[in-house]
Amino acid sequence: MIGGRRRARLRALLAATDVPAIAGPEAFALLTGALMAAGGIISLAALAFPQAPEVHVGALRAMAVAVIVLGVANATVLPRRAGWVHHAIGLGATAYITAAVLLAGGGVASVAYASLFGFIAVDVFLIFAWRAAAAHLAVVLLACVCAFAVLPGASVAQAIVLDGMFLAVSVMTACLSRAAAGAGVDSLTGLLNRRGFDRRLAAAMADAERSSAPLTLALLDLDRFKSVNDTDGHASGDRLLRVTAQAWRERLRPGQVLARFGGDEFAVLLPGCPPEGAEALVAGLRAALPAGRTCSAGLAEWEPGDSASMLVNRADVALYAAKRAGRNRAHRHAGEDGRGRELLRAMAAGEIVVHYQPLIDLQRALHLGLRSAPLAGSVVDPGTVTGAEALVRWQHPTRGLVPPLHFIPYAEERSLITDLGLHVLHSACVAAAGWAPGPDGPRPVAVNVSARELADPGYADRVAQVLGETGLPASSLVVEVTESSTESDDPQLTRSLHALRELGARVAIDDFGTGYSSLSRLSRLPVDVLKVDRSFVRALGTGDRSETIVSAITGLGRALGLLVVAEGIETAEQAEALGRLGCERAQGFLWSRPLPPDEFAGRLGGAAPVSRAAPVGGMASIAG
Ligand code: C2E
Ligand code: CA
Ligand code: CA
Question: Least crowded by CB within 10 Å, which of 254, 414, 590, 597?
Fold first, then answer.
């Protein structure tokens, strides 16, 4: 049992990292060069002392000087060499030490020289993948045995003792270095993984801050990689990733960092490289792909004050633009302009506020006698409020309350939507956690999320973190995503929605009926709520077919077990028509405009959470 577990752990260790890659090629070149030079210096030092008559002192001295020179050269020029050169150096070093063992004449001096094989045994397991390193070690062990076999006065027994030691040292080196590197390394390609990359990015940003040297990040995504996996199998997909990683690795210079972010997405960090140079380099990487393959790329330059996530987001926005423009191209992010910086400042200054529009239990509201309620100044019966939708506003110091459509689309084009969306989510969760429960239990909050946020693989994790921080149960959160944004073929969007569902949150399809309303997509997406678009509500009673369409949507919702919400209800007639058509929930100016957080909470009769900014009078009135 214990043995089995140990074997499993060993297997995992062997599989975890093929190439240890704790350091880059430049560090390996330095290490190999240093070991060569050290061997030469040790040899020269030993030869300064009296030697046995059979030792060829002159030849050994010449070899020692040569190997020191070669070692220094190796450390300075090797990083830019192809992979086979590294193997040639390994084999050359084995031949060199074998020659030294023979020239030492077979006595104690030969045993001393043979101990230098230990350098090779350690070096190859730090640099090469398991199989290649094992092949080099086998050559070393064999060379040692053969040299001792042919030397007069030496015995194979001495070689066996030495070989045993080399074997033990190399296996320990291999395991320790792979275990140390494993956490930050992608096991398939041997490149850094996201975690390893993030560490290097943080260090590079700190350097850029200090030196004000440029720093460019490029994200590269293989085009139509999914079809390789689907049609040729995952083994072909893996092979393509490995070949790509190898081809790109060889084109990078010391200090440039290549990582695999996951899936078919790679990242290249280019310290000291201005965007123009980075564009040329990325063009080279795209050209180095295997025949018939293409990739899309997004580039962004680090700007002072940027966080790592802002830089990655900007490169991601550019990558997204490249893909939308038809793939097989590179886009460069233009950087934050004055408007972007103004929005960032507003977020930091607490000017981005969230208002809440009540979600009404339509049947209950109708039952309570909707028609008799005076429209202007009507008061929402707290018993009919089943929750609220969070709607963001910019409380601008000079422009007043700016509606979301004036800045959300802009934020979505840039990377700003990530931070903005997170701010709204956090505010909404804090607010909802303080709301008094309704007759049906806790009142959930619905938050609008843009497709760009869901395209981020880390989105669901961030939501989980915010829920944890604010104490709001996941069941009290509804994520609203517009129907049109679910039409992109991005599989990550679907994955994010599933992940949110697994957390316990619900998913609403917003503006339903304005997109393609594909039934196959509805069956594929994890959906709990359909929000009938305002345009159908507005058209009710005008004689067109909106009534038929709304009744079809409520029928669809019932059949699929989904909650149907109608939005934009302004008149009692609309409310009654929707009630007749089977709508369960409703939202609209008939009941209330979106309200500042404390005002909304006050209407529920619960303790009002403290809002981040003072409410604005104009928006706060009921049914203006
Ligand atoms: P939406 O999700 O369809 O939100 C409903 C919009 O309809 C809101 O506009 C709301 O104020 C308005 N509305 C509600 N009842 C009525 C009514 O009876 N009559 C009329 N004429 N309008 C009504 P708002 O707040 O201007 O938001 C516009 C859009 O901006 C939202 O449409 C949503 O797509 C987006 N948005 C708002 N907040 C956020 C956010 O935090 N994140 C993201 N990504 N988008 C947001
Ligand atoms: Ca919405
Ligand atoms: Ca809507």
Answer: 254
Task: Write the residue with the smallest CA distance to atom 12 of ligand 1.
Answer: 568
Task: Look at residue 600 in the predicted model and tell me its pLDDT.
Answer: 95
The whole-angstrom separation of Cα 623 and Cα 357 is: 11
424 in contact with ligand 1, CB cutoff 6 A: yes
Nearest CA to ligand 1 atom 4: 391
Q: Whose CA is nearest to atom 17 of ligand 1?
A: 568
pTM: 0.57
Whether residue 401 has its Cβ less than 6 Å from ligand 1: no
Residue type for position 388: A
Res 216: pLDDT? 96
Residue range 213-226, pLDDT digits in tens: 899 999 999 999 98
Which residue is listed with tokens 């070690």? 137
Q: Look over the chain and give the mean of its residue pLDDT values, rounded to a whole number.
A: 86
Mutate to test the pocket of ligand 1, among 375, 391, 449 (most ligand atoms within 8 A of CB): 391
Cα of 609 vs centre of ligand 1, distance in Å, is: 22
CA of 499 to the centre of ligand 1 (A): 25
Mean of pLDDT values over 461-467 = 94
Q: Is 106 in the pocket of ligand 1 (CB under 6 A)?
A: no
pLDDT band at 379 (very low <50, low <70, confident <90, very high): low
Long-range contacts of 194-203 (CB under 8 A, 24+ apart): 194/259, 194/261, 194/262, 196/259, 197/257, 197/259, 197/261, 197/267, 197/269, 198/308, 200/257, 200/259, 200/269, 201/257, 201/269, 201/308, 201/311, 201/312, 202/308
Cα(509) to ligand 2 centroid in Å equals 8
CB 388 within 8 A of CB 359: yes
Q: Classify residue 548 as exposed, middle or buried by CB count within 10 Å of its CB (0-12, 13-18, 19+).
A: exposed
pLDDT digits (tens, 9 = 90+) for 322-356: 888 788 999 988 777 778 878 888 888 899 999 99
- Whole-angstrom CA distances from 254 to 31, 189, 249 are 14, 18, 10
d(CA 192, CA 189): 8
Task: Pick from 353, 447, 448, 593 the residue to mutate for probing ligand 1's pocket: most ligand atoms within 8 Å of its CB.
Answer: 448
Closest by alpha carbon to 174, among 125, 131, 132?
125
- Alpha carbon of 433 to ligand 1 centroid (Å): 22
Calculate how far, in angstroms, residue 437's C-alpha sits from the geometric centre of ligand 3.
25
Cα separation values, 182 from 23, 189, 216, 238, 247, Å: 12, 12, 26, 19, 22
- Residues 186-241 have pLDDT tens digits of 878 989 988 889 989 999 999 998 888 899 999 999 999 989 988 988 889 999 99
